[in-house]
Amino acid sequence: MTTISLPYRATADEACAWLTFHTGTPWTLARLLEQGGQAYVWLDYSAEWAHLFADGVKRYAAPIVFIEDRQHLAAGGADVRLRLTRDAGNLPIQLPGEGMLVSKETLHFQERDLQRLLQDFLQPPPAETEAVPVVLPSALKGLSREQILIAFAGVGKVDLDQGMAGGVGIFGDDGARVRKNSRGGKNSHLWHPVTLAFGLHDVHRVPMAHLKKAFATQPLLRDWKADWLESLALLGE
Question: How far apart are CA 66 and CA 52, in angstroms?
Fold first, then answer.
C-alpha cells in the first residue's frame, strides 16, 4: 500500500493530503483550521518589524493565533494577516494597526501538531455517561496570563491584560484565578478559561458567539472544550 510521509514542517497541501490518507475523508485548509490545526508562517527580519526578533535571529516561525486572522485564512485569503502572534522569544505580541500581511508561500504546519490532531480525530474521548459534576476536574489547573491573552485575543473590547493584573473580581468572581503558577513572580497566577469566559460574558458583555468560536478554534483551549460544552449545557446555552 502506498503511504504518504509527513514532513517536519508540512505545507497546507501536504498536511491535507496526509490527513485525507489516514482518515479516509477529504481535508481542506479551512477544515484543518476549524479542527484546531495550528498554522505558522516564516517571518524574515526587517527594520519595520525588528522588535519581533531577538538578537541574531533573522528568521522564525510565527503562529497564526488571532481568531479573525484564522478566519481570513480559512476563507481563502490571498495572503496571511497577522495582528497577534508570538515574537522570536515566544512571547505574545499584538501588532499595531492592521498588523502585517505575509505571503501564503511560507504557510506550514508542524508534524507534532498534525499527529496530535489526527489522534484526537481517530480516537475522540469517550462520551460522558455519568452525571456532570458541579466542580469540574480541570478547576484544579489553569492557563498562564500569556496563554489567556492569546486564547481570547479579539473576543471583545475588554482589556484582558489589565484585568488579570488587577485580579480579584474583574471577571465576575475569584474563581477564574485558580492558583499560583509554580514559576512564581508578579504575574504567576493561573486562570481557569471556562470560568473566565463566563465572567467576560456576564460582567463585560462579551458576545457568547465570540467565546464559543474561541473554544472551537483555539488550540490552547482544546483541553478545556469539553468543560466548556458541559457548562453551556448546564446553563441551557
Answer: 17
Helix 111-122 / helix 12-23 crossing angle, nearest 10 deg? 30
Enumerate long-range contacts of 124-132, CB under 8 Å, 24 or more apart. 125/226, 128/226, 128/230, 132/230, 132/233, 132/234
Extents of the domains making up the chain: 9-122, 137-235
User: Which residues neighbour 45 within 8 Å (Cβ) at sequence distance 6 or greater?
Assistant: 53, 57, 58, 59
**CA R_g for the chain:** 19
Q: How far apart are CA 208 and CA 195, in angstroms?
A: 13
Q: In 67-223, which ranges are E strands?
A: 79-82, 84-86, 92-94, 100-103, 108-110, 177-180, 189-191
Q: What is the pTM of this model?
A: 0.57
Rounded to whole angstroms, the Cα distance separating 181 from 117 reads 27
Query: Can you name the residues that pair with 80 across neighbouring β-strands?
Result: 102
Q: pLDDT of 109-151, one tens digit each? A: 999 999 999 998 888 766 555 444 444 444 446 788 888 888 8
